[in-house]
């Protein structure tokens, strides 16, 4: 389990019950999918889904609302049908604004946590590294760079200490990815205003209203069973032994 859960759990405690509060009208400023290095098949301004360049993943945006601000966004899920993948990764990036029509883009903060070993992520201002805190990656704290290069720093850079009412502080975006995907199945990224049943998630909360949205990733991808060379059965060994004995007996009798 990633160490960032402690930072996120503290955030969740300080929010005191806001996890169950559902978001009102939500705005979406930007979004993108990185399918094992392909960011052109499903990305804001680049593609609306389909088969990625590698041919092993089909990205379905049918249940995902791509409506951009100032329109109201109803969230949703992205499903990626994976076939015969080998150690692949799939990342999701989005810049949402909770309660956008009334609160704008600069009153949100990050939360969540408990990410398993094969799942990584980050929460940050989409304009970072300016003002970015915590350890940095080779590309700095720029969240989209981490999403693009598959090197999330597993940190929440937008915490309660930075955003305290009534201060207008920070815009928030998030990235989440799953790695080591091998086999066939479906990877699903879900954005919802309902607290997930999974033990891990990313959270974005408006500090003025207490409303939240959540991001999770799940996978049904499984590798095919490997079959080794079966050991010969006892019966088979007996047959071979008998045949060998007959050959030796015939040769001796002929001699």
In short:
The protein has 255 residues and is an alpha+beta fold.
Please provide a written account of the structure.
The protein is of the alpha+beta class and 255 residues long. The protein has one domain. It contains four helices and eleven strands; from the N terminus they run αββββββαββαβββα. The chain has helices at 5-15, 100-103, 143-149, 234-254; strands at 26-35, 42-43, 47-48, 50-51, 57-60, 76-98, 108-113, 119-124, 173-192, 201-206, 212-219. Strands 1, 4, 5, 6, 7, 8, 9, 10 and 11 form a nine-stranded antiparallel β-sheet that branches. Strands 2-3 form a two-stranded antiparallel ribbon. β10 (201-206) and β11 form a beta hairpin. The longest helix has 21 residues, at 234-254. It is globular, with a radius of gyration of 26 Å. The termini are far apart.
Most strands sheet: 9 strands, antiparallel
Total number of strands: 11
CA gyration radius, whole angstroms: 26 Å
Helix fraction by DSSP (H/I, runs of at least 4): 10-25%
Mean pLDDT, rounded to whole units?
A: 81
Q: List SSEs in N-to-C order.
A: HEEEEEEHEEHEEEH
Give the number of helices.
Answer: 4
The overall number of domains is 1
| Proportion of residues in β-strands | 25-35%
Distance between the termini: 75 Å
Give me the secondary-structure category.
alpha+beta
Shape: globular
Weakly predicted, low-confidence segments: 4-20, 234-240, 246-253
């Amino acid at each position: 389990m990633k160490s960032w859960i402690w930072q996120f759990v503290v955030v969740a405690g300080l929010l005191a019950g806001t996890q169950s509060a559902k978001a009102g009208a939500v705005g979406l400023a930007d979004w993108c999918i990185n399918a094992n290095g392909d960011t052109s098949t499903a990305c804001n301004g680049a593609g609306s889904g389909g088969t990625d360049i590698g041919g092993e993943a089909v990205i379905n945006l049918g249940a995902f609302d791509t409506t951009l601000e100032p329109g109201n966004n109803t969230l949703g899920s992205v499903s990626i049908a994976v076939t015969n993948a080998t150690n692949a990764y799939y990342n999701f990036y989005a810049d949402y604004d909770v309660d956008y029509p009334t609160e704008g883009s600069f009153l949100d903060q990050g939360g969540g946590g408990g990410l398993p070993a094969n799942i990584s992520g980050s929460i940050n201002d989409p304009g970072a590294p300016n003002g970015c805190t915590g350890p940095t990656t080779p590309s700095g704290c720029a969240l989209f760079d981490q999403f693009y290069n598959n090197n999330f720093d597993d940190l929440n850079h937008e915490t309660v200490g930075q955003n305290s009412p009534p201060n207008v502080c920070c815009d928030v975006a998030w990235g989440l990815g799953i790695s080591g995907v091998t086999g066939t199945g479906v990877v699903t990224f879900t954005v919802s205003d309902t607290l997930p049943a999974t033990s891990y998630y990313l959270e974005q909360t408006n500090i003025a209203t207490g409303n939240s949205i959540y991001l999770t990733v799940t996978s049904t991808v499984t590798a095919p069973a490997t079959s080794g060379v079966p050991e010969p059965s006892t019966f088979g060994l007996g047959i071979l032994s008998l045949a060998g004995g007959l050959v030796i007996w015939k040769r001796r009798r002929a001699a």
